[in-house]
Amino acid sequence: MIIKGKKNRYLRSQAATMKPLIQVGHEGISENLLNQLELLINKNELIKVSLLQNTMVEPSDLVEALAEFDEKIVHIQTIGSKMVFYKKAPKIKYRKYSNELENIQ
User: Fold this and answer.
1) Rounded to an integer, what distance in angstroms lies between the CA atom of residue 10 and that of residue 104?
2) Is this structure's pTM higher than 0.85?
3) Which of 2, 59, 85, 96 is least enclosed, having the fewest CB within 10 Å?
């Protein structure tokens, strides 16, 4: 799934003031990291991930790993070592950004 245009711009603007919820360090991409990321994205819909200086992980590696782990997770933006991901929340009570995206044309 790819989000383009005004919807992408909306999500980037919402993520601009967010603090990273997950940091990828020297351990790299592990099953535990992917599971934690999935839990957070299912509750928050929009998350920011930070790659620490001591990691050997490239941003493209994380995007590929998440695409294989869950194809519904969408990569929104990468700026330096910060990455933003979006996934529509499975539970209605956690849908904040997806409700707004439906109103954007």
Assistant:
1) 9
2) yes
3) 2
